[in-house]
Model the fold of this input.
Amino acid sequence: MYNKKMDEELDCGIRVAFKMFGGKWKLCIIDAINRGIARPNEIHKSIVNSTLRVIEMQLAELLFFGVIDKCTDEDIYPKKTEYRLTSLGKSILPILNEIDKWGTVHSEFVIERQSELLESE
Done:
């Protein structure tokens, strides 16, 4: 995990939330695990345009902060690793659902703006 040279100020709830859940794919990873997609490769495949390396890094950060648990079945070969949400991870789900609703309501606007942005480049 990347460590900044300067101490971060975590005196604001928003900063704390972004520390734990900020990142390009973390909320998508949590959503995938919540939907039953538990294996690292499956999580990667479910998130279009992601790279396995970034997914693995963000899984490691979510694991470090206790948002997810890693379960490995040692009795089978090759070992089967899966992730599941902890109670802390589940606590973000109502907020994630609201973000999903907001994105659905405003998706046409964002798509339109995105295409305008691409045309202007």
